[in-house]
From TrEMBL:
It comes from the Eukaryota. Keywords: Membrane, Transmembrane, Transmembrane helix, Transport. GO terms for molecular function: glycerol channel activity; urea transmembrane transporter activity; water channel activity. The keyword Endoplasmic reticulum does not apply. It is a multi-pass membrane protein. It is found in: Membrane. Pfam families: MIP (PF00230). InterPro entries: Aquaporin-like, MIP, MIP/Aquaporin. SUPFAM superfamilies: Aquaporin-like (SSF81338). It catalyses: glycerol(in) = glycerol(out); H2O(in) = H2O(out). One of its GO terms (cellular component) is basolateral plasma membrane. This is Uncharacterized protein. Belongs to the MIP/aquaporin (TC 1.A.8) family.
């Protein structure tokens, strides 16, 4: 969990410079809002899935000997190794609880991202945005990761799961824990969409338009200079 959060901090810096999308839930939300086209959505998701699949294959190749010496391919249980690559819920967490956890965690994620990047609502300083986004993911992981491992991203969960199915773990990776696999795919997307709706209703719709905000800033500057 901690390693994933640290990687997220580093990836956030890359995203700030390259404009990359690393989370399919965020990408789908951007498409629904009309910020990117459907063709761009498909291209981004394909890139995300391919990169995640290759990353899982790389980890498997690097640690093949250690994984195989620990135990052969097991998806669930105290000696399971499939959870190295994708998320699985804790044994005492129901499907409903797991769905709510992933949904809520992704709502927190998108709300935090919108707050950090909203220039009309006292957004974060440009250079601090990547670090704050990474810290946001770290905080979500530490605070909400116990139940499900906080996938909050279909792109980081489904492709590695497909890889483990191909690499020897078999279809158990999809049937384990009452067929849990679909929750890290759907709950983050729905959570992201709900989070955007919540942000628009509670904050964005109440922001002043730019042409109204600028005179107030100028007036405040003049008052300050007179003091």
């Amino acid at each position: 969990m901690f390693q994933y959060s640290c990687i997220s901090v580093e990836a956030s810096f890359f995203c700030d410079f390259a404009g990359a999308h690393l989370n399919a839930a965020i990408t789908v939300t951007q498409c629904v809002l009309g910020n990117i086209s459907s063709k761009t959505l498909v291209a981004y998701v394909i890139g995300q899935f391919l990169g995640s699949f290759l990353a899982a294959a790389t980890v498997f190749a690097l640690y093949y000997g250690r994984v195989m010496s620990f135990i052969t391919e097991v998806a669930v249980g105290p000696t399971a190794t499939a959870m190295i690559f994708s998320t699985y819920p804790a044994s005492n967490v129901s499907l409903q609880g797991a769905f709510f956890t992933e949904f809520t965690a992704t709502v927190m994620l998108i709300l935090g991202i919108l707050v950090i990047h909203d220039e009309k609502n006292n957004g974060a300083v440009k250079g601090a945005q990547p670090m704050l986004t990474g810290v946001l993911v770290l905080g979500i992981g530490l605070g909400m990761g116990l139940n499900t491992g906080y996938a909050i991203n279909p792109s980081r969960d489904l492709p590695p799961r497909i890889f483990t199915a191909v690499a020897g773990w078999g279809m158990e990776v999809f049937s384990a824990d009452h067929s849990w696999w679909w929750i890290p795919v759907t709950a983050p997307i729905l959570g992201s969409l709900f989070g955007v709706l919540l942000y628009k209703l509670c904050i964005e719709f109440h922001n002043q338009p730019d042409h109204e905000a600028e005179p107030e800033k100028d007036q405040a500057g003049m008052e300050t200079s007179q003091l």
